[in-house]
Amino acid sequence: MKSKTIVAGIFMTTLAFAISSCGGKKEATDDAHQHEHEHAAPAAEAVAESSVPQFTVDAAFQQQLAAVFKSYVALKEAFVASDAKKVSTEAATTTASLASVDMKLVTGAAHHDWTTFHAGMESALKEMTTATDIEVQRTAFSKLSEQLYKSIKAYGLGGATTAFYEFCPMAFDNQGGFWLSDSEQIRNPYFGDQMLTCGSVKEKLQ
Fold first, then answer.
1. Which distant-in-sequence residues (6+ apart) come within 8 Å of 27 by Cβ?
2. Tens of pLDDT, residues 68-112
3. Taking Cα atoms as reference points, which of 69, 123, 60 lies closest to residue 94?
4. pTM higher than 0.85, yes or no?
5. CA distance 179 to 181
6. Buried residues in 114-128 as b, exposed as e (16+ CB within 10 A)
7. How far is it, in rounded angstroms, from Cα 178 to Cα 75?
């Protein structure tokens, strides 16, 4: 009886940690959902508004980068579905969008930085295209997200497209993971249905 009590206590402690860390586990109780709603407002208030891009570039370049972001969002949704085959397909589509960006439209430091961002994204996409393990693909997706975020911060999306930089503290064994989305609604690519709404918006980008 004592051992059962201990096991039950450990289970409840683990569940409470998951809910407090991420607020929104699919199997959570009504009380947990109430807890999530009570803390939703402060998280929203902490969102950083979009700042002026680091570089002033041709509008055509921003439009091409926005097209990469659009492909990225479809890729993100494949991760939400935890569909490794779909991830490979969408990664190939995103690779094609990335290849369509004309780097001759940027010069000087902007061109130098783009070659770095481009190489990082291209490498991460190649990993996703060739891998068959969804967790390996998710690690590569995290790398892609970092480089695309840096690109959007550097050049902007032209104002017509808005990106949201989002974060889940429980991804990658509680090390945390970032991703980009076209919506403030959280759809976690690192856990999918297991913890679909785990995360919060950290920054708004245009």
1. none
2. 999 999 999 999 999 999 999 999 999 999 999 999 999 999 999
3. 69
4. no
5. 7
6. beebbebbeebbebb
7. 14
